[in-house]
Amino acid sequence: MKQVVVAIFALAVLSVGFAGGWNFVERHDDARDKDTSYVLLRSENSEDGNVVVRCDGGDWLEMYVTTAELHISRTEQKQPDSATFWYAASTWQFDSEAAVTELLSVAVSKDAVFFSGDALGHFLAGLVDGAKLEVRAMGVAGNQLTYNFDVTGGTDALRNLSCISINF
User: Fold this and answer.
1) What is the pLDDT of residues 25-67, one digit of tens each?
2) How far is CA 56 from CA 48, 82, 142, in A?
3) SS3 for 147?
4) Which of 41, 5, 34 is nearest to 20 (CA)?
5) How far is the C-alpha of 3 from the C-alpha of 7, rounded, in Å?
6) Are 92 and 100 in contact (CB under 8 A)?
7) N or C, fewer C-beta in 10 Å, the chain?
8) Whole-angstrom Cα distance, residue 78 to residue 90?
9) What is the pTM of this model?
């Protein structure tokens, strides 16, 4: 019985919920002795859509949105015989702000877009200050993928990540 209580307590400590449906999951990479915790926000209208902000084990964070399989808008190869990079046109809009469309890097599995550079900063600011988010992209079958999120509570959830050192 004591082991069951300890296991239940450990699970409760590792995942914490916040307003808007945000969840903080505390993770540690024992091999590298690094923090790989993340926050996750599920879409209100689809099981495929999630916003994920994750520590990569250093002072860097990864931010991406999971989707159904994406239509690849552009491919790029940095050098002959090197890896091919995929990009998908993705649009996001926080509240009543103007929608932003950019080519974002696509996961090897073709079911997530990654934010980097200016897009990462803009998207992170929206998660902190926004209330509603809509993300749109083209599916592999030519269908429009649309994901809606309630981003309230983002500030409280993101504060738990050690890889974010901005004051908000």
Assistant:
1) 999 888 888 888 999 999 999 999 999 999 887 778 899 999 9
2) 22, 24, 33
3) strand
4) 41
5) 6
6) yes
7) N
8) 22
9) 0.83
| Phi-psi label, residue 162: left if phi above 0, alpha if psi -120 to 50, beta otherwise | alpha
Through-space distance between the first and last CA atoms of the chain, rounded to whole angstroms: 43
Phi-psi region of 9 (alpha: psi -120 to 50; beta: other; left: phi over 0): alpha
Write out the two tokens for 43.
Answer: 């879409």
Contacts of 55 (CB under 8 A, 6+ apart): 34, 35, 36, 37, 38, 61, 161, 162, 163
CB atoms within 10 A of CB 147: 23
Alpha carbon distance 115, 100 (integer Å): 12
Residue 124 has phi, psi (to 5 degrees) of -60, -45
Write out pLDDT tens, residues 81-121: 777 889 999 999 999 999 999 999 999 999 999 999 899 99
Who's near 85: CB < 8 A, 6+ residues apart? Answer: 75, 76, 77, 78, 105
* AA letter at 132: K
CA distance 2 to 102: 52
